[in-house]
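Please produce the structure of this protein holding magnesium ion.
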Amino acid sequence: QHRFWETQPVGQFKDIGDTSLPEGPIEPATPLSEVKQEPYNLPAAYEWTTCDMKSDYVCSEVYNLLKNNYVEDDENMFRFNYSKEFLTWALRPPGYYPSWHIGVRAKTSKKLVAFISGVPARIRVRDDVVKMAEINFLCVHKKLRSKRLAPVMIKEVTRRVHLENIWQAAYTAGVVLPTPVATCQYWHRTLNPKKLIDVGFSRLGARMTMSRTIKLYKLPDVPVTPGFRKMEPCDVPAVTRLLRNYLSQFLVATDFDENDVEHWLLPREDVVDSYLVESPETHDVTDFCSFYTLPSTILGNPNYTTLKAAYSYYNVATRTTFLQLMNDALIVAKQKGFDVFNALDVMHNESFLKELKFGPGDGQLHYYLYNYRLRSALKPSELGLVLL
Ligand code: YNC
Ligand code: MG
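Below is the modeled complex.
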């Protein structure tokens, strides 16, 4: 039962397995003059606001809304705590539209009570590169839940995306909606076992002691691959070539150009880290790995407030084994003080997860496309896309 989603141009549950439906856009683009010119109506006590993410004050308002009301795990032990610097990075990529950073305020107090955002991206589906919006950070204040505010916000962001002549979108969610393009799983690699056990993120295994567990997850102090180093601005062209070539094999993947790589992959402190292998002989860039920083607030623990988590982003191995490359990523993440390294089973990640002692998480991450039908759902390993 999906009163809202049943009205939207997305794959519907009743159509699963119907191979007569064509792949591609579900509804055609319409002339821009036919796009609704006025915002959708909100309940009378609320008003729309466009959140200027260049304003430090507004950025703090969005940060605080998310810090207190955004995604929690099923047991409400942890809540994502995206940093302000992260939000600035995530919401202002090349060609971003300020009008896609949409807030809702209480009319009298002006307090920010809800948010949704989009950023433009090119996403390739088989041979088609499609301009899309990546929709993220949908959040309604805890006190305003279950009032059907989310559908209004989704319709409003859709309208503003249409006004830029863009008709497709990609998004991920922990909940099942009509209908996933792929269903992926998070895997977790413990870096700081004592803390993870203390805060209830993980449990001591059967027949395991703390000291055996610490030994199990121990890593070398420094990366082992000769030529492994941090990515620099001068590496953008080589990394773009490496990444484009790698991503070309997936059915649905990001279409990165040099501008995108400069924005999304050049290291930014406490936001995104990227490393590469420069061949000591030829000076070619042969391998690449990256991860982003997304701490979670630990809810109600007397000893710790924050879980420092690294999330695997885009990785390419051509000369080094995937195993050794990602082991080096774990080593630098550990050096930087992360407690856990998370990765989805997308792209070729399965090839290293088990051997590098990642354990499967509970809960799944579903990928969705708006107004684009695929003949059938994809395996996680057919996806070359990571959303933040
Ligand atoms: C969700 N996560 O099914 P039906 S992910 C999409 N994504 O509709 P109400 C969602 N839809 O089933 P609440 C959703 N969660 O009746 C719920 N829904 O058809 C649907 N949580 O609305 C739900 N952030 O306002 C139902 O629910 C309808 O007050 C119910 O608000 C929901 O960012 C929410 O998990 C999620 O803040 C805002 O629970 C609230 O519960 C909340 O009564 C904690 O809504 C934070 C959280 C979601 C993270 C994310 C991706 C969002 C994608 C949105 C869809 C984009 C479509 C493409 C648009 C552009 C198109 C073009 C071109
Ligand atoms: Mg609501």
